[in-house]
Amino acid sequence: MSEETLRTTEADEGREAETVDREGRLGQAAATAPGTGDAPARIQGRSPWRLAWERLRRDKVAMVSLGFIVLIVVFALLAPVMALITGHGVNQQFNDVGLTPEGLPKPPTGQFWFGTDDLGRDIFVRCAYGARISILVGVVATGFTIVVGVVLGLIAGYFGKIADTIISRIIDVVLAFPFLLFAIALVSIVGASLTVTIVVIAMFSWASVARIVRGQVLSIREREYIEAARSLGSGSTRIMFVDALPNVLAPIIVYATLLIPSVIVTEATLSFLGLGVPAPTATWGNMISEAQAGGLYQIAPWFLGFPSLLLLLLTLAFNLLGDGVRDAFDPRGDRMNQR
Amino acid sequence: MLRFLVRRVLLGVLVLFLVVTLVFALFYLYPSDVARTLAGRQATPETIALIQARLGLDQPIYVQYGRFLWGLLHGNLGYDYYHQVPVTTIIAAALPKTLSIALGASVIWLVLGVLNGVVSAVRPRSVADRTLTVFSLFFYSLPTFVLGLTLLYFLYFKLTLAGVTFFPPGGYVNLADDPGTWFRSLILPWLTLALVQAALYTRLTRGSLIDVLGEDYIRTARSKGLGEQRITYRHGLRSALTPIVTQFGIDLGVLVGGVVVTESVFGIDGLGFEAVRAINDQNSPVIIGVVIVAAAAVVVANIVVDLLYAVLDPRVRLN
């Protein structure tokens, strides 16, 4: 079915939004009042996940973005291979061939594809290694954030009362914190490192997730299936994670997709300020910061340009994908591209 | 309304208290050995002990904490041993610069974001809407420091090379000294900070206004024969603005962060710049001071935003 739909919608792009909308609404109608026309029969047997995935697959912008993200991940994974192919180590300084006689960075050539930096290092290889940091921090910090946010949100929403009051107040406080300044204070004391960067980001991001999960759980807590689970003798932990969690997963996934780019930018920002992953580790933020030092980017724009462009494109790709994921899960929401 | 106000203020005070305590605890648990640094390399243990006693660093933690809080209540943020001046002096010098950047940028981002959002929402799917959508997604994905450096490269460096010396390379001039140069030196920092945020507000306003314009009372207004302008701005935008005000409250913390980055890019020695410099100097009193002042600013501004919210949306007042 999906193959067919793919072809027809590609042929008639204007109808795409309409099809998605109708299916989305019918998908919900089927759950409450089946038997409106012939469509429900066709829809039956497809889980909401399947529906969302099929909608996402038809979203060309989201698919191109996903393709680009995969490309960057491959680029990052193959960083050592890039170093091998070019024959340039990530921190290797080419004082003779990598710098002009005046000791300035060299523009892109056949030997240095993205040019060299102020120390005669290969920017292409450094970009590949920088991608590793960006993606690692993006995924790991988002993962931590989601886990902490989900657990606390579930507890607050499910148990209510004192647990809810305490957790909600903590959420309010964390959300009111000026994040970057506190990160600055923390990093200045414990020292900058990859782990600290991830912990700092997770520490300040879980609150929004917890708030979303709490709100969702509050609204489903009194539903019949939760009551049924309770009357069957399920424990609280089981109800929270087995019965409630799958039903609040959709907004979590949407939020996570949109959180990754913001985490990546935060890491780059911390590194740019000298508070993230310390030099000489190659990160995009570090490279941009080095390019800024002494106005070097004015004579060597490629030094600023390549890491900046990669950072921009990766963030853009994640944001576009996130939009697509949101539309796929909630076809009636704000459709940036099709409304 | 009064209860609402009291609750908000109490929460604000609680947040501030927690920030202050956390920051104090952080720096107490990881002492940077001020006394040893101040005493110099050849100091005897006696000298160091003397300095510690003079600074009160030999007291138990609760005494130090109490003195710290007491000082705060009297507007005393501590002493910058590194530059031999009170921290308040440093902050007083930096604050006008930071405020100039932050206020100007907020005005630009709100006006730009809301107006673009209205243009988009009034005619969804039009050429203007699609163009604005592409632009806002682009700027929304642009990290602040990348935008700042790009603006500097093209609008300062390339333009100056081309013979147009309109934008200065960075730095700051006092408003009172030379309003013209003050304005010119702030255009790029304002744009840097505003464009990224404006994108978010364009999207928010668009979504919110499209929803509102579909409401029954808008149809009623239209059937009464009101003009489109009046419907859009008086009836539609007013209730569409509430989520934007909420977002603005949340973004004040983001604004503080953005200011840190913008000041670093443009070399303006405001609060953020001082904070980053203080870290490199291991100058904890200044770090503590800046964090507390910024936290206080965010808390106060949040309360103001919440009050504004209550004015805009009567439903909030009833709860």
TrEMBL record, chain A:
GO terms for cellular component: plasma membrane. Residues 131-322 form the ABC transmembrane type-1 domain. It holds the Pfam family BPD_transp_1. Residues 1-22 are annotated as: Disordered. It is found in: Cell membrane. Gene3D superfamilies: MetI-like. Keywords: Cell membrane, Membrane, Transmembrane, Transmembrane helix, Transport. InterPro entries: BP-dependent_transpt_permease, MetI-like, MetI-like_sf, OppC_N. The keyword Transport applies. PANTHER family: D,D-DIPEPTIDE TRANSPORT SYSTEM PERMEASE PROTEIN DDPC-RELATED, OLIGOPEPTIDE TRANSPORT SYSTEM PERMEASE PROTEIN APPC. Belongs to the binding-protein-dependent transport system permease family. This is Peptide/nickel transport system permease protein. It comes from Microlunatus flavus.
TrEMBL record, chain B:
It is a multi-pass membrane protein. The keyword Transmembrane helix applies. Residues 95-309 form the ABC transmembrane type-1 domain. InterPro entries: BPD_transp_1_N (IPR045621), MetI-like (IPR000515), MetI-like_sf (IPR035906). One of its GO terms (cellular component) is plasma membrane. The keyword Membrane applies. Keywords: Cell membrane, Membrane, Transmembrane, Transmembrane helix, Transport. The chain crosses the membrane at residues 9-30, 101-122, 134-156, 182-201, 240-266, 286-312. It is found in: Cell membrane. One of its GO terms (biological process) is transmembrane transport. SUPFAM superfamilies: MetI-like. Belongs to the binding-protein-dependent transport system permease family. This is Peptide/nickel transport system permease protein. It comes from Microlunatus flavus. The lineage of its organism: Bacteria, Bacillati, Actinomycetota, Actinomycetes, Propionibacteriales.
